[in-house]
Design goal:
heterodimer, A: alpha/beta, five-stranded parallel β-sheet, 20 strands, B: Alpha-Beta Plaits, 4 domains, binds iron/sulfur cluster
Chain lengths: 412, 536
């Protein structure tokens, strides 16, 4: 048997990367978890809990739990804010990383939030989880100090002296016996769809809606901060769309948007919700009964709208085909949520070349992936999947890594 | 201690688990109920390199992950078998939805399962389907289905359409394409000529003409009435837990979901975990949602990873388990009944806690009528001292003093998040973090009032989210009971409240404690009693 502990580099600190790291640790393997952004948890750490008077199994809290466990696990080294510059392969893997300086000192920061409140450019970002340390981070791309050295507001306002806007990037090397790629997905940016996204403020994506809910607990309209009374959800935006060449169902958007709508209706029974959809996908074990309730609680329209216009007051006119007459009708809504799908991540491309990796074609996930020996995929990098599936896939990947390190490829 | 894993159930997932564990040299035994080998259904042990555990009746299973002991009767004798882990798996049962469509099988009506078994042999299929030109599939019309069933329907239709030269029609409400490659498969079937008819309400009208069903309905997409008299109507199936699961679940004392699958509908039971350490559930036996091959493979790998982690022995639980004071215990077995992890075991009729299994939810300690159980670190007196300290620590005596019992998995991280998000929390808020709200006993709540709380909150996770299955509900019902009794001792019942939160609900936590605080202040002014003054 091979000598343990071995070291594995996991690229991507979303729920799949976290779960892979945790299972690897259970299997006696040390992990370097390399994340490019300032925060761990990936997309899913941003999600709002969708419970009504009971848990609806959206899985958001499981991401929080995995993050907490990973932070507490001494066999996992967490490397946020890292760019992978190069990966050399010589039996083992040797990766050169550049780590952004920690502009906010985790040990000093007490999460008082003054920097976040006072930054004139909104360049101080905030984490989503109580396990995030530090809870705030400076986005150099928007920071005036980095632009023209014209602002030191956050440094001045910080009572703990925890901020410094200088420092050299750190060079690190990661030596690993295997690499797991868990770079996830990118949410579809619906600028090419005829829904006025980016121009009409009250047209938001489901991902942006998560942020709105985390902040306000209610579906407030970006234009006036008032809670919406008549909402529309448009499903399959960026999924099941031949015109985009996206011949996949993103698998999570029916569940996530319907759970969201049910939660909102539970909090505000007067809220009117309309769903525009193609087919409603099964989510949860009790879907048959949930589906029946959904049919009572909201209006389901089997049609994908063709257009959206903006009214003067920021309200929206949605043009769709009437189900009964088959004619085109215009209908007013005050907030439209585009249920955006999952697409292959740019971040994956950044490392694919370094690893001679070709990920699967999402239309044909059983097709073309070329994954070199010692490299493994985990989570949504391989195709659209939800949190529970990402965790299951992570468990599989971790087992296969251990099999590889043991010289027991039968584990695959 | 043995390293052997015992697998209950057969089929694709079981084979995959065996293959994975074999690769790591982990010994596996396949359990076979002896009586099953005489009937028709299950396969008898084959003389290959496999190890079997043949039993007549399974009686009990004690211990935990890494060290389980199974008791079974074998040919009239009671035998013991040790196992590192037990994995429940198997194919699950499939029930054709005939009745839901007012149809019965036979003749021109067939279940998806019958067609599937025919498809094993091209000759059998050709013989049986001779003369059939038009085939209608009914899937997910009467009942919503999972993608695995839809995939089978699409594959069958595709095959009949392109290999057997038939015209196929798929009737459905919501085409289930949320699986690997299914949208692409759907497009492929359409290209091959499969016709889809999508329905909303109501049910299509199905009548019988000359022994053959006639289906009349309105298509959602074309808005036209569509009448078809197919030569063959194929009705899909609903996936059910396997028939033998009742017995296994009872012996292994695992929680099941509403449909009876071998895992409760609880987000904490990620992938193959059940409420019992070392008892795993993999494949369609745990949920209809993992009936597809891809998902079964993932389950098998996760089961193998769990076993391997156990065998490698990484996890050592060092935290203090609940303790039963045998002198005080009246052997009512409340703890034995209520422990969600089956950590309370009987030794010579005396309940004791197995420290390796205990998850420190404290449900037993809170429910024990003899107060014989102690959860170290969470005794009434230490909680009381903690509260007293919190009360005196804060000099700002104007604001109401609030004690919030917070579940460590939900409300407590939400509280931390709230302060990290810069939300202003009430000035005198004492948070008592407990491992599970299930440990918040009636005594704790009363202690908080005794130690001077103006208001007490019991904050749990949402119903259906509790890692300890019902710890949250126990806590809330205790609080409800105390609330109804408070007026008897002269305490306004509004001073005790309960609410549910998730770990990511920082904003909601802040709002909740804020409005409780405001309510307390309002009531205090109304009744004229000064908030923050000594209360008993
Ligand atoms: C709007 C929306 C709502 C959703 N709601 C739900 C829901 O309710 N329930 C559910 O189960 N699922 C939901 N999902 C799906 C869920 O987001 C995914 O299942 C999950 O995020 C997948 O995790 P992941 O770790 O594979 O990917 P990600 O969450 O995308 O994480 C990938 C991580 O890798 C990092 N990374 C990428 N490239 C690199 C690189 N080159 N170097 C270093 N790091 C890199 C990224 O910064 C990121 O942190 C939703 C998705 C969307 C878009
Ligand atoms: S899950 Fe629903 S919304 Fe998302 S792509 Fe699939 S069908 Fe469309
Ligand atoms: S504390 Fe919970 S897990 Fe431990 S023995 Fe008591 S009921 Fe069981």
């Amino acid at each position: 048997m091979a000598q343990f502990p071995k070291n594995v580099m996991v690229i991507g600190g979303g729920v799949a990367g976290l779960a892979t790291a945790l299972t690897l640790s259970d299997l006696g393997i040390r992990v370097d978890l390399v994340e490019k952004s300032d925060f761990l948890g990936g997309h899913a750490i941003r999600f709002a809990c969708k419970a009504t008077d009971e848990c609806v199994k959206c899985g958001a809290c499981m991401v929080e739990e995995k993050l907490g466990q990973a932070v507490a696990d001494p066999s996992i080294r967490l490397l946020t804010g890292c760019r992978i510059e190069n990966i050399e392969r010589n039996g083992r893997f040797k990766a050169d990383l550049t780590r952004r300086p920690a502009y906010i000192d985790a040990d000093k920061c007490t999460a008082c939030g003054l920097c976040y409140r006072d930054c004139p450019e909104g360049a101080v970002h905030r984490g989503y989880s109580a396990s995030t340390r530090p809870f705030y981070a400076v986005d150099v791309a928007h920071c005036l100090q980095f632009k023209d050295q014209s602002c030191r507001r956050c440094i001045e306002v910080c009572p703990e002296d925890a901020i410094s806007l200088s420092g050299e990037p750190q060079k690190l090397t990661c030596e690993a016996d295997a690499v797991v790629v868990a770079t996830g997905f990118d949410a579809f940016r619906p600028v090419s769809k005829p829904y006025g996204y980016g121009r009409f403020k009250n047209v938001v994506t489901s991902l942006e809606m998560e942020d709105i809910l985390r902040e306000n607990g209610a579906p407030v309209r970006p234009t006036d901060g008032e809670p919406a009374r008549k909402m529309a959800f448009i499903q399959c935006v960026g999924s099941r769309d031949a015109s985009l060449g996206h011949l996949w169902c993103s698998r999570i958007c029916c569940g996530t948007s319907m759970r969201m709508a049910r939660m909102l209706k539970h909090r505000e029974p007067e809220l009117e919700v309309t769903f525009f959809y193609i087919d409603i996908q099964t989510f949860g074990r009790d879907f048959d009964s949930v589906h029946r309730r959904i049919q009572e609680e909201m209006r389901l329209v089997r049609a994908i709208p063709g257009d959206i216009y903006e009214n003067e007051d920021g309200g929206l006119k949605v043009v769709h085909q009437d189900v009964d007459s088959g004619e085109s009708v215009k209908e007013d809504f005050d907030l439209v949520v585009l249920s955006v799908g999952l697409t292959p991540a740019e971040g994956t491309q950044e490392v694919a070349g370094l690893l001679q990796l070709r990920t699967a074609d999402w239309e044909n996930p059983f097709g073309e992936a070329v994954v070199p020996e010692g490299v493994f995929l985990a989570g949504a990098v391989a195709g659209p999947m939800g949190i529970a599936d990402s965790v299951a896939d992570a468990g599989r990947a971790a087992l296969e890594v251990r099999g590889y390190l043991d010289g027991k490829p039968g584990g695959k | 201690m043995t390293r052997e894993t015992i697998i209950f159930g057969q089929g694709f997932c079981a084979d995959e688990i065996r293959r994975r564990l074999d690769a790591f040299g982990c010994p596996v035994a396949t359990a076979i109920a002896h009586r099953n080998t005489q009937g028709s259904g299950q396969k008898a042990p084959e003389p290959e390199a496999q190890v079997y555990f043949v039993y007549d009746r399974l009686l009990a299973c004690s211990g935990s992950s890494g060290d389980l002991t199974l008791l079974a009767s074998v040919e009239g004798k009671i035998v013991q078998r040790k196992a590192a882990a037990v994995i429940l798996t198997g194919e699950g049962d499939r029930e054709p939805d005939f009745a839901a469509y007012g149809l019965s099988g036979g003749g021109a009506v067939m279940s998806l399962g019958e067609l599937r078994s025919l498809s094993d042999s091209a000759e059998k299929m050709a013989a049986k389907l001779k003369g059939v030109k038009r085939v209608a599939f009914l899937t997910g019309v009467a009942r919503e289905k999972v993608p695995a069933v839809c995939e089978e329907v699409m594959r069958m239709a595709m095959r009949l359409q392109s290999e057997n030269g038939m015209q196929t029609f798929i009737y459905t409400r919501n085409l289930k394409v949320a699986g690997w490659g299914l949208e692409a498969l759907y497009r492929e079937t359409r290209m091959a000529g499969v016709v889809y008819i999508k329905l909303s309400q109501p049910m299509p009208e199905i009548t019988i003409e000359d022994g053959r069903p006639v289906i009349t309905c309105q298509d959602d997409i074309s808005h036209e009435t569509f009448r078809l008299r197919p030569d063959l109507t194929v009705v899909d199936e609903t996936l059910m837990p396997p028939a033998g699961l009742d017995e296994l679940a009872a012996v292994f004392q695992i929680q099941r979901d509403e449909q009876g699958f071998a895992q409760s509908d609880n987000v904490h039971r990620l992938t193959v975990a059940t409420n019992r350490h070392g008892i795993l559930a993999a494949g369609p036996v745990r949920s209809a949602l993992v009936a597809g091959r891809h998902d079964q493979r993932l389950d098998a790998a996760n089961a193998a990873a769990a076993v391997l982690g156990e065998v490698l022995g990484k996890k050592v639980v060092a935290e203090d388990a609940a303790e039963i004071d045998t002198g005080q215990c009246v052997r009512c077995l409340t703890c034995y009944r209520l422990c969600p992890y089956r950590a309370v075991v009987l030794r010579d009729e005396q309940p004791v806690v197995d420290p390796l299994v205990c998850e420190r939810c404290g449900i037993c300690a809170a429910e024990c009528p003899a107060l014989a159980i102690r959860l170290p670190g969470f005794e009434r007196s230490s909680i009381g001292d903690d509260i007293a300290q919190g009360r005196s620590a804060d000099p700002q005596a104007e604001a109401p003093f609030i004690v919030a019992f917070c579940c460590g998995r939900s409300a407590a991280p939400a509280a931390r998040l709230a302060s990290m998000m810069g939300r202003r929390l009430p000035a005198r808020l004492k948070i008592i973090e407990v491992p599970c709200a299930g440990s918040v006993s009636r005594e704790f709540i009363l202690e908080a009032f005794t130690r001077g709380a103006d208001g007490v909150m019991v904050l749990t996770c949402h119903t259906g989210n509790c890692h300890s299955e019902k710890g949250n509900r126990h806590a809330r019902s205790r609080a409800a009971e105390i609330r109804s009794l408070l007026p008897l001792v002269g305490i306004d019942k509004e001073r005790l409240t309960t609410a549910t939160l998730a770990s990511n609900m920082g904003a909601e936590f802040a709002r909740l404690v804020d409005s409780f605080s405001a309510e307390l202040e309002k009531r205090a002014t109304r009744t004229g009693s000064a908030v923050g003054s000594e209360t008993a």
